[in-house]
Specification:
By secondary structure, the chain is of the alpha/beta class.
């Protein structure tokens, strides 16, 4: 569950294997939040303190469970030398377009698999499948982010090979995805120049959680009011450690740096296994 929004009980969550066409309607969480009262139950009495304590306890249990499952995913990745990257951004920042370009440009160099996250539809998963990459679509229903259990269920179907790059495209959202560990090795945030250069100031936790920031759609800079230097300075204020690259998924500008970063991280995974 997100610390404040209470989205941790998604209704209608599904996982679709785009290779086989199988769609599973998953019960992804163990808790039942429906309160059952007898017909004559009186709701007039105050219960704020009890409710608050229950919410805090529930948040703690859900986050603890997520951390446990994330650790399991992480061990699974490490044992198979898989580089897992969590791709996060607001809706429309260009995550799927970047993935399409990446799959095409890196074809044949190493195996690349994708877990697609959206609230609904198979649209993005089908786009990735059309590019030739194995993909599982996770629809979160009412949920606004992926969690470690969803990733584990997706891996059961996707089964990425040893040494693969696994890209997890999270649900478009600048808040909740940053709060949930999926077991990934690296987190990548995308900020498009069409969003506004103040986003790192407004949503600092997203950028603080990221290892790499891709400033995307730089081909549109002549047509928008976006101060790249201001956005990058704000991102570095939130996260002094962050690496920043300027790219255009449409034209390919700057993507060589993105591919070099991925190659370096894949090498680091292999080195970590040997050490």
């Amino acid at each position: 569950m997100c610390t404040h929004c209470g989205c941790g009980m998604p209704e209608g969550a599904t996982i679709a294997d785009l290779q086989s066409g199988a769609v599973a309607h998953e019960h992804l969480h163990e808790h039942d939040h429906k309160h059952h009262h007898p017909p004559d139950h009186d709701h007039a009495h105050p219960h704020v303190h009890t409710h608050s304590a229950t919410v805090v306890e529930l948040n703690a249990r859900i986050l603890e469970k997520n951390e446990r499952l994330a650790a399991r995913n992480r061990g699974w990745f490490e044992g198979r030398e898989i580089l897992a990257v969590n791709l996060m951004s607001a809706p429309g920042a260009g995550k799927t377009t970047l993935l399409e370009r990446t799959i095409a440009d890196l074809a044949g160099k190493f195996p690349l698999s994708v877990i697609e996250g959206d609230q609904a539809s198979l649209r993005d998963g089908e786009r990735i499948r059309a590019c030739g990459a194995p993909v599982v679509q996770v629809n979160t229903g009412t949920g606004c982010h992926l969690d470690a259990e969803m990733i584990g269920r997706g891996l059961d179907r996707l089964k990425p090979p040893v040494g693969a790059l696994l890209v997890i495209e999270n649900v478009g959202n600048l808040v909740c995805p940053a709060l949930f560990d999926l077991g990934e090795r690296r987190r990548v945030a995308i900020l498009s120049v069409t969003e506004g250069d103040d986003k790192p100031m407004k949503y600092p936790h997203m950028f603080r959680a990221a290892d790499l920031l891709l400033v995307n759609k730089i081909d549109l800079l002549p047509h928008v009011d976006f101060d790249v230097a201001r956005a990058e300075a704000a991102a570095r204020e939130a996260a002094p450690h962050i690496t920043i690259l300027r790219v255009s998924a449409k034209t390919g500008e700057g993507l060589a740096g993105w591919y070099d970063w991925l190659a370096h991280e894949r090498g680091a995974v292999h080195t970590a296994v040997l050490s």
